[in-house]
Amino acid sequence: MLRVVPFTFNAFGENTYLLIDEATRATALVDPGMYARDEQETLRRYVEDNNLAVKYILLTHAHIDHVLGNAFALRTYPGTPLLLHAQDWPVLRAVGSYAGPYGFAQYEPTEPTGELTPGQTIELGESRLEVRFAPGHAPGHVVLYDQAGGQVIGGDVLFKGSIGRTDLPGGNHQQLIQSIERELLTLPDATVVYPGHGPATTVGAERRSNPFLQ
């Protein structure tokens, strides 16, 4: 069984997740947004206190709020692969050019060590994550689906009562709606969606009441 543990970090209120395979303690760190020292220590202590083994650093996409903790994670868990869809590699590389003006002068650039590809399966102990391609908010955005657990890590695609913004470079509103319809609304209504900001929701709740999907 895969347990999802959320943390909210940085000035953007970004949700960072630990995905923990209960049987083996194998763990994926998704969208490491920890920037301040206390945020970094909160994440490090949780991993240490719960005897977790971080096997992957996975990025749903590479906007600044989702990658501020990349360098810390790579230092803290050396040799752990940092995976990102190839279409968002340029997005990650651009962060250093605007981090300072956004107030993140201590941001440290990082490079992916591998790709996330549509249909790929990430093996995490006895659990499995399916990579689903969901561009529109960012060109290389993916979501991570845990079919056995009935849950999906959705990044900035679908929120409770809202959807991801599409006015950033590489954004496309029509493409985002199509991604939601194809990759999320085809999942069972009970599927829990853990978004990149704000509270969790379900596919069914958003199908019925999200004003952007009516």
TrEMBL record:
Q: Which cofactor(s) does the record list?
A: Zn(2+)
- According to the record, the segments passing through the membrane are none
Gene3D superfamilies associated with the record: Ribonuclease Z/Hydroxyacylglutathione hydrolase-like (3.60.15.10)
Family annotation (InterPro entries): MBL_Glyoxalase_II, Metallo-B-lactamas, RibonucZ/Hydroxyglut_hydro
Q: Which domain of life is it from?
A: Bacteria
Domain Metallo-beta-lactamase positions: 13-197
Matching entries from PANTHER family are given as:
HYDROXYACYLGLUTATHIONE HYDROLASE GLOC (PTHR46233)
Q: What is this protein's name?
A: MBL fold metallo-hydrolase
